[in-house]
Amino acid sequence: MGRQKRPTIRDVAEKAGVSIATVSKYVNRQQSFSQAVEDKLRSAIQDLGYSQNPLARSMVTGRTTAIGLAVMDIANPHYANVVKGANRVALENGYNLLVVDMEESISAARPLLAALSPRTDGLIVSARVPQDVADWLAELDKPVAFLGQPERDDVTTVGTDSVQVASLLAQFLVRQGFSKFGYVGYSRAAWNVERLRGLREVLEPAGLELQVFDVEEPTSEAGERAAARVLLCQDRPDVIIGCNDLVAIGLMSEARALGFNVPEDIAFAGIDNIPTSRYVTPPLTTVDVCSQMTGEVVMKQMMAMIEDKPCPEGLAPEPALIIRDSTRRTVKSKQLAK
Q1: What is the DSSP letter of 75?
Q2: Cβ atoms 310, 304 nearer than 8 A
Q3: Nearest 10 degrees: CA dihedral of 127, 133, 139, 140?
Q4: Model-wide pTM > 0.70
Q5: Alpha-helical runs (H) found in 69-159
Q6: What pLDDT band is residue 57 in, cutting at 50, 70 and 90?
Q7: In whole angstroms, what is the distance from residue 287 CA to residue 139 CA?
Q8: Mean pLDDT of 279-285
C-alpha cells in the first residue's frame, strides 16, 4: 500500500471553500479574517492534518519558499503595481514575497541584495542596478530575474520593449500634427537610451526635431524642478514627453503654475499609465507598460526556474497607447503649429 499523499495548501483551500491566497495569509499570520472564515480554516487544517513548518521544510528541501523582489523606489506607482502583481501570483502558489526598496540608491544596492539573498529561493531585481551588481547577481547560485534589461543579454528579463514604447507614443504624436518635440529623460537608467532610440526612429525620418533634457531622479518633484529650463528655453517644444508619468505630471503641473494652457499652449505625454495619470488636469496621455502584468509574469518565470521547469512562453507584456486630453489638438494649438 503506497504512502498517503501529504495534504497541500490547495487541499486546505478547497476543503475550507476559500482561495489559496487566504490560506497562505492565515497560516503565515499575514492577515486576520472573520471568525467564521478562521473557524473553517482551522477545521480544514485539523481534519486534513496539514502542517507548515518553514524552518523544518527549509532544512529538508533547502528552500525557504520566499522570493526576494528589489525595486528602485516603492513610492513609484509603477513599482508598487509590479509588487502587487508579483505578490498575487506568489501567494496563490504558496510563496512569500520579501520586498526591498533600494530608494534610488545605487551604492546601497549590493549590500541590500547580499542581505536578502540567503533568505530567498530566488531574486527579482530592477535592471537599473549598477553593471557590477548585475554581474554579481548573474553569478549567484540561485535563480535571478531582472525587471528590464541590464547591460548583458544572458539573463532572464521581463518588461515591455522600451524602443517599442517610445515609438508607439511618437507615432501618435506625429499623427496629431506636433512638430517640435521635447523629451525629459533620466540618463542614469539603461532604458533611457532605448526610449530615445524609439523616438528618433520615428521623428528623424519625418524631419522633426527632438530636444533632450534630463532630470536627476524620475519623480514628479524632479519634473517640477526641470520645468523652467524646459518650458522657457529658446524655440520651446510644442509637446513634451516625460520619461515616466511622474516626471510628466510634475512638468505639466509647473507649466500651469507658470501660466501656460495645457494642451493649448503646450502638450504633455508620459510613460507607465500609473493610476494618477487619469485624474490629473488635464488627464495625461501615456503608454501602459502593464506594470501588474509584469509582476505576474516575472513571478511565474521565477517559480519555473526555482522548480526547474520550462519557463512559460507567450507572456511578454505588450504596451498600449492611452490617449487623453493632455495631447488634444485644439484650434489654437493647430494655428500655432502653422
Answers
A1: T
A2: yes
A3: -90
A4: yes
A5: 77-92, 109-116, 131-138
A6: very low
A7: 34
A8: 97
